[in-house]
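Final report, closing paragraph on structural work. Over the funding period we assembled a curated collection of sequence-structure pairs, and we close with a single example.
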Amino acid sequence: MSAPLSMYQASVPVFLRALRNLRHVLEKGEAHARGRGEDPAALLQARLYEDMLPLLRQVQIATDTAKFGAARLAGVESPRFEDVETTFDELYARLDAIAGYLRTFDETALQGSETRAVTLSTRTRGDLHFDGRGYLLGHALPNLFFHVTTAYAILRHHGVPLGKLDYLGPAA
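Its predicted structure, as stored:
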């Protein structure tokens, strides 16, 4: 019989995989724009719909969700990023920095986090209160995948030749 799934296994490796695959689809998007003689920076401002955030913000929010997710579960402060990226290279550096930060967490750092109180302050809904399990499963993972999926969809909508396996990445 296998051991129960730990909070670490359900979070950090999942965050890392999502961000690795996001980097991959961004690389394909940048290459596609360059191959067509287009300015890749224009793609970073692309949206699915006019009232939705552009690709650049989708990536920033996805990375924030992953770093804050691990930090909140571990009960530690997360590093802050100023959201000043304007190029693909700057987004890649951000993705790499967040991946490096996530790799600082291990099973021990998240032990007991399923019952840790997590409070998330929001602009529109006030403070949201979770236990760690509820935060991970009901907020952090859905939010991460929303923004990664939206980034993928923006790129796909703008003609980048992506498929499901680009989104899913290699088998773990």
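The mean pLDDT is 96. The longest helix spans residues 7-35. We thank the funder for supporting this effort.
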